[in-house]
Amino acid sequence: MAEFSLTRTTHPTSPAVRQAALADPGFGRHYVDHMVVIDYVEGDGWQDPRILPMSDWSLHPAAAVLHYGQEIFEGLKAYRRDDDSIWLFRPDRNAARFVNSARRLGMAELPEDLFVEAVERIVALERDWVPAGENEQSLYIRPFMIASEALLGVREAKSYRFSVICTPVGPYYSEPVKLWITPNYTRAAIGGTGEAKCGGNYAASLVATEEAYANGCGQVLWTDGAEHKWVEECGTMNVMFVTADGELLTPSLGSILPGVTRDSILKLADAHGLKAVERPISVDEVLDGVESGQIAEVFACGTAAVVTPIVGFNSPQRGVAVVGDGQPGPKTEEIRRHLVDIQFGRAEDTFGWTRRV
Ligand code: COI
């Protein structure tokens, strides 16, 4: 256990204001009263783990993150169960992915146990901010790290700041989503940063998302950078296909985000009579399959989005394609329910994924 110091805010949110926030949390609209901060300096290592009142930061205008985008982040949630206990879901997986992202971005590696401890400490302190769990509300936890060294030369920075902030949230998508197959943009390329959870991947996605909106869709279906032929992921989530012959198909890892929800759902597939298959999937296979009924259901998955039904596609080559009858499919609903029930302690956690705070 690391020594964390705690400086309490002198202006805590009043219970009435917090209750109002929890009643309609949105996503990232309200923040808890404290944050974790741990700094890293090359040669000295990780310094002075502390919990501070939530506040603005001061950064040197030459801080490397502001110029060259050395930034990584994670997303996980804390769930309040019916007995009022608070639980995390597979925080060790986020900690491990954070190390991989740091390696790819040439950043300092935060020890995995320190990551998990930081998350547990802030959630324990802010447990009153964890919503009651109705409508699948939870506390979204955002660990992140920036290069803090003032540096205009392009090289790996020598100082970093790790922080954890939290926000109560409801569902990220309130409705099923249609996907735009963009001919113009790519999220990742072989050898790029597709597997890392870094801010730059999301910055580069924004213009394509606007293109999706302009074409009547809520998100982008990303395809490979070389040929625009192979499906990668969608929006900020992984994508899965339920086939008519009982497979749960998803693109192999490589240039996509190795999602914790993705991994969990692949492990749950069996319990739903589905065979989990990870392999390259072409856009033509998807659109032909949707047209013929061979692909019966499509859904996206991620921490924020949980399991979001995909009910249609649009593309310049093939126009609009509707999945099934245009409604969320039964396997999608079942899998979503199973996952959420494990998270909220209503279904047996046979894999040992949940961790009490
Ligand atoms: C998450 O699911 O945690 C994400 O990272 C999505 C977020 C960018 C909204």
Automatic annotation (TrEMBL):
The keyword Amino-acid biosynthesis applies. InterPro entries: Aminotrans_IV (IPR001544), B_amino_transII (IPR005786), BCAT_family (IPR033939). One of its GO terms (molecular function) is branched-chain-amino-acid transaminase activity. It comes from the Bacteria. Coiled coil: none annotated. Belongs to the class-IV pyridoxal-phosphate-dependent aminotransferase family. Pathway: Amino-acid biosynthesis; L-valine biosynthesis; L-valine from pyruvate: step 4/4; Amino-acid biosynthesis; L-isoleucine biosynthesis; L-isoleucine from 2-oxobutanoate: step 4/4; Amino-acid biosynthesis; L-leucine biosynthesis; L-leucine from 3-methyl-2-oxobutanoate: step 4/4. Keywords: Amino-acid biosynthesis, Aminotransferase, Branched-chain amino acid biosynthesis, Pyridoxal phosphate, Transferase. It catalyses: L-valine + 2-oxoglutarate = 3-methyl-2-oxobutanoate + L-glutamate; L-isoleucine + 2-oxoglutarate = (S)-3-methyl-2-oxopentanoate + L-glutamate; L-leucine + 2-oxoglutarate = 4-methyl-2-oxopentanoate + L-glutamate. This is branched-chain-amino-acid transaminase. The lineage of its organism: Bacteria, Bacillati, Actinomycetota, Actinomycetes, Propionibacteriales. Its EC number is 2.6.1.42. Its cofactor is pyridoxal 5'-phosphate. The keyword Transferase applies.
